Structures are given as C-alpha cells and as structure tokens.
Amino acid sequence: MTDLIRPFAALRPRQDTAEAVIAPPYDVVDVDEARSLASGRPESFLHISRPEIDLPQGTDPHSDEVYATGSSNLKQLIDRQVLEREASDCYYVYRLEDGDHSQTGVALAASIAAYESGRIHRHELTRPDKENDRVRNIEALNAQTGPVMLAYKADDTVDALLAEASASTPLLEARGQHDVVHTIWRIGSADAVAALTQAIDALGDLYIADGHHRSAAAARVAADRRGGSKSADAAPEYFLGVAFPDDQMQIFDYNRVVRDLNGLSADALLAAASDAFAVESADTRAKPETAGSFGMYLEGRWYRLESRARNAAGDPVENLDVRILHRDLIEPVFGISDPRTDPRIDFVGGVRGIEALEQRVDSGRAAAAFALYPTSIRELMAVADAGLLMPPKSTWFEPKLADGLLTYVLDG
Fold first, then answer.
1. Rounded to whole angstroms, how far apart are CA atoms 329 and 311?
2. Range of 23's domain?
C-alpha cells in the first residue's frame, strides 16, 4: 500500500447522535465560547476537545486534570454507545455545505513519513505551546480527534470516485456551527478503497491547508512511540486528515489589529504609511477588492492603502499581501517584528466580517485595524512547492471541519 495515505476505522457518532456530538474545532473558540456552546449539551465533543469547560473557571487548561477529564469524557461517550467504532478500515467522503458553497473531499489517514519527507507540504511554523497541548491531548485520549484540512490539485479521477461514493445514502449528516452542514459517506469495498488509494497516490503531493499544530503533534507522538524501531503499519505513523480539491476550497481574509500606535499620532502614522503605500481616505468601509490593496481603520475612519512594491520580487512569499503589510508597515512603523509572539498584534478571521475590525478599534481594544485581500490557495501551494513558509496567520479557511464526527484511534 502507498506510503501517502491509508483507510482507517473511525470512531464516530451514529446518525441519531451526530447532532448532539458535533462541535467546532477546538482552536476557533475560546474557553468562554466553548462553555456556552456546550451548555445543555452533555454529549458535545467540546467536553473532550476543551475539557477545561467541565472544571472550575480559572483552571489551567494545560493541567493534568484537564487532559484526564477529556479522556474520561471520551470513555463515557464510548461506554454509552454515543460513539461507536467502525468494524473495518474505510475511507469517508466528507462534504461541507455552507449556504451556496459546497466542497467534497475524502477523510483518510495520512502518512507521517510523507509529512516528514515533505510529500505532505507544510507552509507554517507552529507555536510550541499549542503543539505541546495537542501532544498531551493525543496521548491522553490515545486518539486524534481534530482532522487536518488537506488540499490536493484538483483531479478528475479522484472527483469521479468521490461522486460515485456520495451517490448513495449518507452514513451521517449533522448541522454544525454557523449552520454548516457536514455529510459523510463510507467507502468500504476493497475495490473502491484500492482505486481511491491509487488515485490519490498518483497526485504526487498533498498540502496542509489548516491544522499545522495537529499534524506536528501527531508526528511528535509517532516519534515518541517508535521506541527505536519504526513500523509503517503502526497506527501512530498516520494522522487524521480530510483532503479537498483546491478548486473547491474557500479562503477568507485574515485581518490584523494592532493594540497601540507605537508612540505615533494618527497623522504621523498616515505619513509613515505613505512611504510604502498610496494612502487615501475612504467614505465607506475599505474592504480590499484586489491583491495589493489594504484597508486601514484608524480613529473612526477608513483609509485605502495601495502597495507600491507588489510584484517587485519573484519570491512567492515576498509577494503575499500578508508579507507586504508586515514588511512595509507593521514591522518598521509599529515595531512588531515577530507576529507569532508579540502581544501587541492580534488576528481576526474575515468570516467575522469587516465590522469586527471597527468594533476592536471603537471599543479601545485596538488602535488600528487592517483589512486584507484573501490569500489564494494557489499562492499557498506555490509557497509550499518552493519549500518556503507563509507568514503567520496568512489563511482562514471556511467552512471549517468539525470535531467529533470522525476520530482516529491510535491503537485497537
């Protein structure tokens, strides 16, 4: 069997328990949001992915008690048969429907060896604290509960196989956060499994779209469990993923807010921005409509910024809007060199709307906000193909995969 992917026997809800279990990804809600979403929903997977919600407020989310609580909660759902394990290894068609948008991919176990060799491309650095949290979560549960969103270059053969498999009755369907509908079909026959394995292997590469901390944590767990020897068939040598064709994926803007003006007045900031951007006042919200254009919200007013440097270099990273904004304004003017660690900068997914940027500034939680044009999936792939890294918080994929519908158990 190929060293890129393989089928797996998922731990999953039944159709009649799916709506009770489905939960948003652990990392898109804070503890207060998680507690609110899980209130009155004892079977919500948030009790497993964010178990601190079942402990007193103020509990350290990285304490031993938190991970033990998550393990206990998972065991209870299994014991009560809210979750059940597939009898054999399968692939799963996974469809996301968000209003008029639909994307159909395949849930699979992706090879850690392919991840380590670069056949499954990464494009972001990870934060050690978040990676450590996922390692402890996997070890406590002996399972990977949050799927990594993967991308592949659209392929007619793979699309046809998924279309054929999804023509039957779904295994389960559930409506998740933001009314996104998640529908899953099983691909279990030996011939269909072999055909899909071969077709995806023939693609050559996969790309991590969303889930760098999950995949990095899975690789660390695999390394820890090898014990001096490596078995390509061992469950920990794979991680849970759902791969979608690139032409169906949807990326929103990932915007920036800055806590203070680094000692500058608003006029001084506008003058400094003019060194690298053409700046003009806007009568309406300055939501960018093209690459190289930015909106800035400052003291209750919107401004349009047009980069003078786009396409000045052939480097695929240097031409990214997130890089241009950081290189030409955030770092030299605001004095923020590392957006991964500097508390003076924060990030707002475009799914929250441009009004969320105004709210941050108008409430005093930020001094300035910047609206960006979305990074494209092709830009992401170009960076990954070049062996380079994207700037932090470059992409916000929507809709999101759910936690709880498919879990990858590391041992039998």
1. 17
2. 5-250+398-409
